[in-house]
Amino acid sequence: GHFGNVVRGEYRGQFVAVKILHASSTGQSPQSRNNFINEALLLQQYKHKNIVKFLGIAAIRDPLMIIMELIEQGSLNNYLKDNDLRVSQLILMCYDIAKGMAYLEKRNVIHRDLAARNCLVDKKNRVKVADFGLSRCLQSDEEYFCQIKEIPIRWWAVEVFLN
């Protein structure tokens, strides 16, 4: 991810995914820490079957860690490379992503890094949106354009250039 590495861990007797803030990020700036904590604060608000489930945060001492549900089959990107899927399966996966994104949109949240590498496939082949490191709550158009500078220019939507 942008701010950390994800490893498998154990939390309260279950296997989980643990996102650990890069050690270099911790020493670089308070902004890196704030972005990481912001990701956790956003994620803990989401309760939807197509959004990765937040379980906790370890923020008392370094390294900072976000604890999330472990999604068995990994990233959608790798899943698509490793499996020959029917069109009907692909459509269902796209629909899962759309449901997750619609949920976020209703809460005025912009993911800002939606890609197959940031979507996860569970054991039921349900897709969940993950990696909220660049996400922001949209309060006004002005805030959106102030924050957009964090995204590489090659990923900007056409509307950004038109405005």
Automatic annotation (TrEMBL):
PROSITE patterns: PROTEIN_KINASE_DOM, PROTEIN_KINASE_TYR. SUPFAM superfamilies: Protein kinase-like (PK-like). It holds the Pfam family PK_Tyr_Ser-Thr. Residues 1-163 form the Protein kinase domain. InterPro entries: Kinase-like_dom_sf, Non-receptor_tyrosine_kinases, Prot_kinase_dom, Ser-Thr/Tyr_kinase_cat_dom, Tyr_kinase_AS, Tyr_kinase_cat_dom. This is Protein kinase domain-containing protein. It comes from the Eukaryota. The keyword Acyltransferase does not apply. One of its GO terms (molecular function) is ATP binding. The keyword Nucleotide-binding applies. Keywords: ATP-binding, Nucleotide-binding. Signal peptide: none annotated.
